[in-house]
Design brief:
Blueprint (H helix, E strand, L loop, with lengths): L4 E3 H9 L4 H8 L3 H13 L4 E2 L5 E2 L7 H11 L1 E3 L1
Antiparallel strand pairs: 1-4, 2-3
């Protein structure tokens, strides 16, 4: 199956707004493993962090606006 592209900006926004796993899976047409892979990719990019219990939280590291936009420009489209 061909990889689809998911907007990192949109996915992070949906996650931070409180969208639950079922809604994310439906919106982005992902399986549970696909959603897990997406969360891992976003975490590796530093756009999301998890606590010790695995719950998502905002990253501790703050980026200046230039760095922030550079990160999003680089990760704007994440192959899935």
């Amino acid at each position: 199956m061909a990889d689809r592209e998911i907007s990192a900006r949109e996915a992070v926004s949906d996650i931070r707004s409180g969208m639950d796993e079922a809604a994310l899976m439906k919106k982005y047409k992902l399986s549970q493993s696909g959603l897990r892979d997406l969360l891992i990719k976003l975490t590796e990019l530093g756009l999301l962090e998890t606590d010790k219990e695995g719950k998502l939280r905002r990253p501790k590291k703050r980026y200046g606006s230039r760095n922030f936009y550079a990160i999003f420009a680089a990760a704007r489209r994440i192959p899935n």
